Amino acid sequence: MREQAAKLRSSLNRRRFVQATGAAVLTAASWQRVLGANERIGIGLIGYGLIGQSHLADFKRQPDVDMVAVAEAHRARLEAAATAIGGNVARYGDFRKMLEDKNVDAVVISTPDHWHALQTMLACAAGKDVYVEKPLTVFVREGRWMVEVAKRYNRVVQAGTQQRSGP
Known about the structure:
Rossmann fold, alpha/beta, 6-stranded parallel sheet, 16% strand
């Protein structure tokens, strides 16, 4: 256990720590390129319900983040998200198409619960780091698969754990 913790600590540098923890800002190291300290992180938002709206507001306040894409199956929500983001944001009715977008370094998943595991694994396989809302999975085996896929593709996956219990 201590050996694993030491290995994890040594693999984190300041930038990766800040990106993995600071206001849910994700790491920017994509498999295609490594961002420098002064570059911006391209975020793709998957799902624009109440939680997605909250995440969008949080990420828009981050100085080193660009919201570059949104994926939402519901057309009206897709357009609302694009309007809220502003600019030349890429719009996708199918999240899988967004995962092909080279401008997206990381994704924020705020879809219905049963999508979380699959979308996380596909994002990792596409070379994207992931911030995913709770619950991570519906079944324990999905969690194991997620860990395997994240390790295989050397991706960072962060789970949202805010407001885990009632008022």
